[in-house]
């Protein structure tokens, strides 16, 4: 971070502390929750984190941690919010996972009696969390989208003759499955995957598989007001994911991508975005066209990258929830990277690329998602959990 950015953050933090801002309650998430927690505690804002027992953000300095079981339990989260309304009433609620976001939308009227949820349109949020409705909205907006086959009451058999392989199966709600998608190269693979995805509560969709590597992925972010004014917008790209073409990103790059921004604006104009939105695209190498992949209505994992480049995304969302004016934020010509070294090295080995290709990646103003010298416990906890899991899977004793 350059000196000018440090001074800007320091002054912003002093202003917030003097203003005596209400507490903030962070709901779910991983690196995005940790980055938010560090930001708000540094600004002197009382910060509560509600998440599963091993969540890194629960170990961050200065937070009030509320563990809700071995996996994130949205019902337990809502129960805590109800029982704590007297003590934490007036707090800003920031959902940082899809599961938390759905729970906040479902209990919107009840929660608004005591809390200040982030600005959103419940109908838009619900639609954008549904993979079927996202593609339908893209088609209506004239935004390119992958081919999609709707599975009706008779199941896959009624569309089987229309399918084009390879294709992917995606859960309608991503948090209901342990994987983002499953790829089928033929009918036999499709039938095997149906056993896994066929029992999902909200079902699944069949989508065309867009060829090309993860470097074809890019995203557009925006914050808009209720009257349609854009307060902030920027783009980023992904270099690699782990596992490739399937898992979480291991290297993000903040970079100006005019084509991604143009199609992203078109999509948000159509759906009437209010508050924060992020839409992801993949360029189809067969046509050069950007096709929509998914839409998020929350702060994402790339938040540390944005913070390290002076983009106060968390602060803008917080101020919007309180009904305070947010000035437009200039974000052009910014550049930086967010790197997951271990996961990226694993992904590199799986990709089969040469070591020179991996070492040539840009590392200008690189951010790390978990590690901070001033707040080491979240990263140490995450690494300890990862090593324990790895050893448990590898050790021969205790196996049948």
**C-alpha termini separation:** 52 Å
Determine the CATH topology of the largest domain.
Answer: D-amino Acid Aminotransferase, Chain A, domain 1
Largest sheet: 7 strands, mixed
SS class = alpha/beta
Strand content: 15-25%
- Domain module tally: 3
Helix fraction by DSSP (H/I, runs of at least 4): 25-40%
List segments where confidence is low: pLDDT < 50 over at least 5 consecutive residues. 1-18
What is the highest CATH level, the class of the largest domain? Answer: Alpha Beta
* Average residue-wise pLDDT: 86
| Total count of strands | 16
- Overall shape: globular
Question: Could you explain how this protein is built, in words?
Answer:
- The protein is an alpha/beta fold and 400 residues long.
- The chain is 37% helix and 22% strand.
- The chain folds into 3 domains: 3-117, Rossmann fold; 147-208, Dna Ligase, domain 1, CATH 3.30.1490; 214-373, ATP-grasp fold, B domain (D-amino Acid Aminotransferase, Chain A, domain 1, 2-Layer Sandwich).
- It has 15 helices and 16 strands.
- The strands form 3 sheets. The protein has a 7-stranded mixed sheet with strand order 14-13-10-11-12-15-16.
- Helix 3 (74-83) packs across helix 5 (98-106) and helix 8 (131-141) crosses helix 10.
- The longest helix has 18 residues, at 377-394.
- It starts with a helix and ends in a 6-residue tail after the last helix.
- The model is unreliable at 1-18 (pLDDT under 50).
Topology of this protein?
Layout: H1 3-19, E1 24-27, H2 31-42, E2 47-51, E3 64-67, H3 74-83, H4 85-88, E4 92-95, H5 98-106, H6 108-112, E5 116-117, H7 122-128, H8 131-141, E6 148-149, E7 167-171, E8 182-184, H9 187-197, E9 204-208, E10 217-224, E11 230-242, E12 248-254, H10 258-271, E13 275-284, E14 289-296, H11 303-307, H12 313-321, E15 336-339, H13 341-351, H14 355-359, E16 366-367, H15 377-394
Helix pairs in contact: 3-5, 8-10
């Amino acid at each position: 971070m350059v000196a000018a950015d440090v001074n800007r953050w320091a002054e912003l933090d002093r202003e917030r502390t003097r203003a005596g801002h209400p507490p903030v309650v962070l709901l779910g998430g991983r690196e995005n929750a940790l980055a938010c927690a560090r930001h708000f505690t540094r600004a002197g804002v009382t910060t509560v984190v509600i998440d599963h027992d091993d969540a890194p953000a629960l170990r961050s300095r200065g937070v009030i941690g509320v563990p809700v079981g071995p996996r994130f339990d949205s019902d337990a989260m809502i129960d805590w919010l109800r029982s704590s309304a007297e003590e934490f009433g007036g707090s800003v609620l920031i959902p940082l996972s899809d599961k938390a976001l759905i729970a906040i939308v479902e209990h919107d009227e009840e929660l608004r009696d005591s809390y200040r949820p982030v600005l959103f349109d419940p109908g838009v949020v619900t639609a954008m969390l549904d993979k079927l409705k996202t593609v339908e909205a893209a088609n209506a907006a004239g935004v390119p989208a992958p081919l999609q086959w709707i599975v009706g009451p008779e199941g896959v058999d009624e569309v089987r003759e229309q399918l084009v392989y390879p294709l992917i199966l995606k859960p309608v709600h991503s948090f209901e499955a342990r994987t983002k998608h499953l790829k089928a190269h033929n009918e036999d693979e499709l039938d095997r995957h149906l056993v896994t995805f066929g029992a999902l509560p909200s079902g699944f969709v069949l989508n065309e598989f867009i060829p090309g590597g993860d470097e074809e992925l890019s995203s557009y972010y925006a914050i808009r007001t209720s009257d349609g004014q854009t307060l902030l917008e920027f783009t980023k790209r992904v270099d690699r994911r782990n596992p490739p073409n399937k898992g979480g990103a291991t290297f993000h790059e903040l970079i100006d991508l005019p084509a991604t921004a143009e199609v992203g604006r078109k999509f948000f104009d159509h759906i009437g975005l209010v508050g924060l939105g992020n839409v992801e695209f993949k360029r189809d190498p067969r046509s050069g066209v950007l096709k929509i992949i998914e839409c998020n209505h929350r702060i994402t994992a790339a938040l540390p990258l944005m913070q390290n480049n002076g983009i106060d995304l968390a602060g803008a969302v917080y101020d919007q929830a309180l009904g305070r004016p947010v000035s437009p934020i200039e974000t052009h010509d910014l550049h930086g990277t967010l790197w997951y070294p271990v996961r990226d090295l694993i992904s590199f080995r799986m990709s089969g690329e040469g070591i020179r290709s991996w070492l040539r990646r840009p590392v200008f103003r690189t951010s790390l998602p978990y590690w901070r010298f001033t707040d080491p416990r979240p990263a140490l906890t995450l690494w300890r959990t990862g090593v324990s899991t790895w050893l448990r899977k590898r050790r021969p004793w205790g196996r049948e």
